[in-house]
Amino acid sequence: MIIHEYLCGVCGHTQEAYVSSDVIPNLIECDCCSSPAKKIVSMSHTTPVDSPWLNEVLEIVDKKSDAPHNTEFLKHPSRANYEAWKKGTGLRHLEPGEGIPKVDKTAQKATIKNKMIQKIQERNAITVRT
Fold it and tell me: pTM score > 0.70 for this model?
């Protein structure tokens, strides 16, 4: 049994239904008004193989916000809505040359090592009082 979502064309009610994987009906009866409800594709039943960015973005979208760009992107996560969400949130891609500066790891390790040696020597130093 698989869960599918159905949307009523008359009252707009969305409902879930367990259906067998052998026969998946495109129309079922709406629970609210008994009109035909059409099967819809929902985010929970799709795997964006060609768009791995989608899962990462959906993790950081503010799901409690009532901002139109958030709600529209959560309802319909498309490239266009992604661009609108970025614009509404104030995010943008990095410009060429604007990336994260590269760190010289060897120099950084040498600096840390020297600081540690200095602290050890200070800690182990013998002070002579007269």
Answer: no
